Amino acid sequence: MKPKKIPMRTCVVSGEKCEKRELLRIVRTPEKEVVVDKTGKKNGRGAYIKKDISVLEKAKKTKILEKRLECSIPEEVYVDIQKEIENESKKR
Q1: Which of 21, 50, 63, 81 has CA 20 to 30 A from 91's CA?
Q2: How far lies 15's CA from each of 7, 71, 72, 75, in Å?
Q3: Structural domains of the chain, count
Q4: What is the domain-level CATH number for residue 68?
């Protein structure tokens, strides 16, 4: 039997390729709203970041998410991302 293909994505901050489930997708919806996409299937422009607080801090500092999503990102979105990363680390 053929092994199942594992989807790979690239973290916009670190540039490393990881399995899709190890990354968090941030989406700019067609309504210009920036949200955390837990399903990985929302419509809009997406960017993946690694589920790591240090990567999130670097993303904030360099504003890479704003550049990739081509819009400004409110502080509440960064707080949501941090909560999601913390919840994910508790599950492990």
Answers
A1: 63
A2: 16, 20, 21, 23
A3: 1
A4: 3.30.1230.10
